[in-house]
Structure formats: structure tokens, C-alpha cells
Amino acid sequence: MQIEKKKCLLNNRFRSFYPVIIDIETAGFDSKKHALLEIAAITLKMDALGWIYKEKTMHFHIQPFNGSEIDKDALLFNKIDPFNPLRGAISEKKALKKIFNEIKKGIQSNHCSKAIIVAHNAMFDYNFLMAAISRTQIDSNPFHPFATFDTASLSGLILGQTVLSKACKKAGLNFDNSQAHSALYDTIQTANLFCELVNRWKRMGGWPLEHNENKKLKNNNTN
User: Fold this and answer.
1) CB-based contacts of 144: which residues, under 8 Å, 6+ apart?
2) What sections of 55-142 are H helices per DSSP?
3) β-strands 52-61, 114-119: how paired?
4) Do the beta carbons of residue 50 and residue 6 sit within 8 Å?
5) Do the Cβ atoms of 144 and 17 come closer than 8 Å?
6) Alpha-carbon distance 145 to 114, whole Å?
7) For residues 168, 171, 174 and 178, what is the CA-based torsion angle, rounded to 10 degrees?
8) 19 vs 27: CA distance, rounded Å
9) Is residue 92 a contact partner of residue 132, using CB atoms and an 8 Å limit?
10) Per-residue pLDDT reduced to its tens digit, 176-209
11) pTM for the whole thing?
């Protein structure tokens, strides 16, 4: 029973990495000068058969950091009012600490070495997250320093689509365009997409690798 439990840990699936789906909404495209306004993160779990699912969801509205710049065109796009008191926004540091505490619990319980960012067009979210970590001087960053899983690239390969809404629909997942560009909604949809892509690869026989190796050996012996 203990052996079976160890087999279903996420560290056996992603080279000891703990995938965390991230989406960030911002006040522009420059990670060093434009404000981070919203962040959501979803952790994953794996069942005894090796299928992955969403586990814990975290979502925070963020106060623009001191000296940050606001691009009005970005706000028209994501429809966020950074100074609306009803947002219940908190500081970058407080939000990141809450998220990182949960991620560290997941890393430990799954015997992983590091978390790895999963995002759609991942470098955008990666750059803003790393800039926020640098600004807040958080010294316990759980994420891999440069590696990411990009669902845009994975969707382009598997589904022939790179836009999140189109990739979700191509994968048979619902997508409500009216809710898009909210960190929470986009993170949920990206998590759904990532789980579907990973689980689809398993359904097609691509995982576990031992299955393919045994099948290849059987075919070679037959020939």
C-alpha cells in the first residue's frame, strides 16, 4: 500500500517538479515598472491511477506597488480598477507569502524538489512573478529559477491552437469569453486545459513510459 501511494505522487510524473498553474493580470507589459494587479494559483493532485486534477485554488487582488506605472489601455483590456476599495486588495508580499506557504506544503507532501510555473504564454507571468519576488525581497521562492510549462506551446503541439479560449474549445472544454482576463477564471481554464493535455497523453498510451517500453519490447520479440 505504501509503495502504491508513492507511485501516485506528482514527483514521479514531472521529474520531481510540482506544477502550479499561475495567471497574473497587470497594468501593462513591463514587469519592472507596471503594477501587478491580480494573481491566482492552482495546485494539482494525482490519484492512484496517475490522473491529475485541480486541488487548491488561491486568488488575490493586489495593491499597485509604490512607484508603479499604470497603462490605461491595459485597464481597458482587463477591466480592473486598481483603486476601487471594494477589490479588497492586499500587498504583493502578503499575497505571495500566502501562495508560497501552500505551495511549499504541496512540495513537501509530494516529495518534490521545486515548484514549476504552468501558465498560458508562460514567460509573461513568469517575468511579473519574478519581478514581484525581487521587489518584495522574498527569499523563499519555491519555483524553478527558469523552467516553465507553457500551455500555449503544449496546445499548439497537441491541439493546433495557441489562444487559450480556442485551445480549450478544441479540447472539449467550456470557455466563457465574457469572463476571460480575470486571473481567477483564466487560471481555472488553464488548469483545466493542462490537466486535459496531460491526461489525454496518458489515455493515448504515452504514460507511464514503462508501458511504452514493455509494448516496444513485446513487438520486437514478436518480430
Assistant:
1) 17, 114, 115, 116, 117
2) 72-78, 92-109, 122-136
3) unpaired
4) no
5) yes
6) 9
7) 20
8) 26
9) yes
10) 999 999 999 999 999 999 999 999 999 999 998 8
11) 0.91
Alpha-carbon span 43 to 53, nearest angstrom:
9
Of 61, 144, 181, 211, which one is the catalytic site residue?
Answer: 181
Q: How far is the C-alpha of 4 from the C-alpha of 190, rounded, in Å?
A: 29
In sequence order, the 6+-apart residues with CB closer than 8 A to the CB of 101 are none
Q: What is the pLDDT of residue 6?
A: 56
For 47-106, the pLDDT digits (tens) are 989 999 999 999 999 999 999 999 999 999 999 999 999 999 999 999 999 999 999 999
**Residues 208, 201: Cα–Cα separation, whole Å:** 10
Contacts of 183 (CB under 8 A, 6+ apart): 23, 24, 25, 38, 39, 40, 59
- Is the sign of the CA dihedral 217, 10, 126, 38 positive or negative? positive
Does the annotation mark 111 as catalytic? no
21: β partners: 42, 118
3-class DSSP state of 184: helix
Cβ(40)–Cβ(190) under 8 Å?
no
Give the rounded distance of the alpha carbon of 95 from its chain centre. Answer: 16
Amino acid at 223: N
Identify the three-state secondary structure at position 119.
strand
| Cβ–Cβ < 8 Å for 48, 13 | no
Residue 215 is predicted with a pLDDT of 54
Give the 3-state secondary structure of residue 197: helix
